[in-house]
Amino acid sequence: MKLYPAKVQKIIKETSDTYSYILDIPEGYAWTAGQHALWRFQDYEVSGDEKPGRVFTIASAPGDGFLMFTTRIAEPHSNFKDILLNQIKPRDVMLVANPLGSYTFHDGTDRALVIAGGIGITPIRSLLKDMADKQNTSKKVTVLYSDDRGEFAYGDFWNAVQQTLPNLDLHLIDDRNAFTEKTEAYAKQNGSDAEYLIAGSPGMNKAFAETLKGLGVAEDRIVTDDFRGY
Ligand SMILES: Cc1cc2nc3c(=O)[nH]c(=O)nc-3n(C[C@H](O)[C@H](O)[C@H](O)COP(=O)(O)OP(=O)(O)OC[C@H]3O[C@@H](n4cnc5c(N)ncnc54)[C@H](O)[C@@H]3O)c2cc1C
C-alpha cells in the first residue's frame, strides 16, 4: 500500500471533543469529494494491541487546497486518538493512503436530503464545498445535521457555503425526535423524487434507511456512508 507523507499545517478545535487536522496535499495525491482514506503516523508508535491506522473521511474538497480530516476524541479513547490529541502538532508528518469510496450526490434528482449524525457530517462538508467551488447551484439540498449536545463542527463554513449555494437549507438539530420528525416530514413530501444521503454510525444509518423505505422511498434513492468503528 502506497502511503503519502502529508505535513500537518494546523489543528482546529471544532467542538468540546472534535478536532480537524489540516495538512498539505502530498505531491501526486488526488481525491474526489466524499472519499475516505487510511491515515497513519510517521513518527509516533501506536500501542501494540491497536491497529496502526484509522480510516477517516477527507473532509476537505479538492478546491480547498488542503487535506483535512475531522475526528471525535471522547473519553475514554484509543491510543491512536490519544496521539492525535496530545502529540501530533503542526509540522509533524502523517501518512495517508490512496482515497477510496464513491459517496456522493447523483444526477437524476433536483433535490436531496442529507441526514448527518455527529461526526457523520465530514463527507457532507466535502461534498457541499465541492458543489460551491463548482458553482453547482442546480440541486436543492436540505441538510439535517444532528448532534445531541448541540455542538456543531465547521462554524463559519456554513455561512460561507450558503452564500454560494442559495438552495442549501441547513438545519442544526439538537433533539433526536426533531431529527426523525424532520426526516419523515421531508420524505412524506418528496418521496422518491429526492435522493437521501445518510451519514453516521452503521446503526443510525440502518434505522434511517428503514424509516425512509417504510415511507415508500425507493431503495436506489438512499445512499449511506457507514462510519464503522463508532
Ligand atoms: C468510510 C469510513 C469513514 C470514516 N470517517 C470518519 C471520520 O471522518 N471521522 C471519524 O472520527 N471517524 C471516521 N470513521 C470511523 C473511524 O475509522 C474510527 O473507527 C473511529 O473514529 C473510532 O476510532 P478509534 O477506534 O480510535 O476509537 P475511539 O474513537 O477512541 O473510541 C471508540 C469507542 O470505543 C471506546 N473506547 C476507546 N478506547 C477505549 C478504552 N481503552 N476503554 C474503553 N472504551 C474505549 C470509546 O469510548 C468509544 O465509545 C470512518 C469509518 C469509515 C469506515
Protein architecture, described:
With 230 residues, the chain is an alpha/beta fold. The protein has two domains: 3-97, Beta Barrel (Elongation Factor Tu (Ef-tu), domain 3), CATH 2.40.30.10; 111-226, Rossmann fold (3-Layer(aba) Sandwich). It is 24% helix and 31% strand. It has five helices and eleven strands. It has helices at 79-86, 122-133, 157-164, 176-190, 202-214, and strands at residues 3-15, 18-23, 36-41, 54-57, 67-72, 93-97, 111-117, 140-146, 168-173, 195-200, 222-226. The strands form two sheets. Strands 4-3-6-1-2-5 form a six-stranded antiparallel beta sheet, with no helix packed on it. Helix 3 links the parallel strand 8 (140-146) and strand 9 (168-173). It is globular and about 50 Å long. The two termini are 25 Å apart. The model has no long low-confidence stretch (mean pLDDT 97). Flavin-adenine dinucleotide binds at residues 36, 54-57, 69-72, 74, 76-78, 80-81, 119, 122, 227-230.
Instruction: Identify low-pLDDT runs.
Output: none
Shape field: globular
User: How does the major sheet shape up?
Assistant: 6 strands, antiparallel
Say which CATH homologous superfamily of the largest domain is assigned.
Nucleotide-binding domain of ferredoxin-NADP reductase (FNR) module
Binned strand content: 25-35%
Task: Give the strand order of the largest sheet, numbering strands 1, 2, ... along the chain.
Answer: 4-3-6-1-2-5
**Computed structural class:** alpha/beta
Under CATH, the topology of the largest domain can be stated as: Rossmann fold
* Named CATH architecture of the largest domain: 3-Layer(aba) Sandwich
What is the CATH C level class of the largest domain, in words?
Alpha Beta
Unique bound compounds: flavin-adenine dinucleotide
Number of helical segments with 4 or more residues: 5
Helix content: 10-25%
Structural domain count: 2
* Rg: 18 Å
Based on DSSP secondary structure assignment, what is the total number of beta strands?
A: 11
Order of helices and strands: EEEEEHEEHEHEHEHE
User: Average pLDDT, to the nearest integer?
Assistant: 97
Q: Terminal Cα separation, in Å?
A: 25 Å
